[in-house]
Write a structure and sequence with these properties.
Number of domains: 1
Distance between the termini: 67 Å
Largest sheet: none
CATH topology: MetI-like fold
CATH class: Mainly Alpha
Oligomer: single chain
Helix content: over 70%
C-alpha cells in the first residue's frame, strides 16, 4: 500500500474518534473549566481572605505540575485509595481542573484591568455588588479576556492528545493503533497532525469572527456614549 493510499484509508479511522471523543472532551472540559475559572477569579477579585489563599494554592499546584502527571494521578493513582474513574470522566476532570487554573488567572487579570471607578459609579446609581459584577465588570472583563481564552481553548484541543495515555480512544490512540498494525508511523503521525491543524484552524476562524463582533459591539457602545 502506497503512502497516499494508507493516509486515505486511515483518514476517517482517525477523524471519527476525533468527532466522537476529542471534540466532546474539549467542549465539556473547557465549559467546566470556565465555570471553575470564573468562581476562582471572582473570589480572588473580592479578596476573600481564606478562600483567596485556597484559590492561590490551587493555581500554584496545577500550574506547577505537568498535565500528564495530573492525568496519571487521577487515573492510575486514585485506585490505590479505592477511587476508580473511567477514562473519559477522568480526562474531563483533569482537563477541567488544569485549564480552570490558567483561565482563572486570565479572567482575574481582565477583571482587575476594569477601572475601579466603575465599581464606585455602580454603587452611586444604586447597584449592589453582584449587579455591578455581572452587569459592569464581567462583561468588560470577558471582552478583554476573549482572545486569551480562545487561545486556551485551541491549546487544550491539542492537549487532549495526552488522554491517549489513560486509554481514552481519541485521535492519537486511534493513530497509534493503526501504526501498531501497519508499522508506518511517519505518514500517520503527519496525518493526525494535519487533522489537529484543521480543527485548530477552524477554532482560530471562530476566534477572529468573535473578536470582530466584539469590536463592533465596543464601537457601538462608544458611539452611544458619545451621543452619535
Amino acid at each position: 500500500m502506497s503512502t497516499l493510499e494508507l493516509m486515505a484509508d486511515s483518514f476517517l479511522k482517525i477523524l471519527l474518534p476525533g468527532i466522537r471523543m476529542t471534540i466532546p472532551l474539549t467542549i465539556i472540559a473547557f465549559s467546566i473549566a470556565l465555570v471553575i475559572a470564573l468562581l476562582v477569579a471572582m473570589i480572588q477579585y473580592a479578596h476573600v481572605k481564606v478562600l483567596s489563599e485556597i484559590c492561590r494554592f490551587y493555581i500554584w499546584v496545577v500550574r506547577g505540575t505537568p498535565l500528564l502527571v495530573q492525568l496519571y494521578v487521577v487515573f492510575f493513582g486514585l485506585p490505590d485509595l479505592g477511587i476508580i474513574i473511567d477514562p473519559f470522566p477522568a480526562a474531563v476532570i483533569v482537563f477541567s481542573i488544569n485549564e480552570g487554573a490558567y483561565c482563572a488567572e486570565t479572567i482575574r487579570g481582565a477583571m482587575e484591568a476594569v477601572p475601579k471607578g466603575q465599581m464606585e459609579a455602580g454603587y452611586c446609581v444604586g447597584l449592589n455588588y453582584w449587579q455591578i459584577m455581572f452587569k459592569v465588570v464581567l462583561p468588560q472583563a470577558f471582552r478583554s479576556a476573549f482572545p486569551a481564552l480562545s487561545n486556551s481553548l485551541i491549546s487544550m484541543t491539542k492537549d487532549t492528545s495526552l488522554a491517549a495515555n489513560i486509554t481514552v480512544v481519541e485521535m492519537m490512540m486511534a493513530t497509534n493503533r493503526i501504526i501498531a498494525r501497519v508499522y508506518r508511523p511517519l505518514p500517520l503521525y503527519i496525518e493526525v497532525g494535519i487533522i489537529y491543524l484543521i480543527i485548530s484552524t477552524a477554532l482560530t476562524a471562530l476566534q477572529r469572527a468573535g473578536e470582530k463582533r466584539l469590536r463592533r459591539y465596543e464601537e457601538a457602545e462608544v458611539k452611544i456614549h458619545a451621543g452619535v
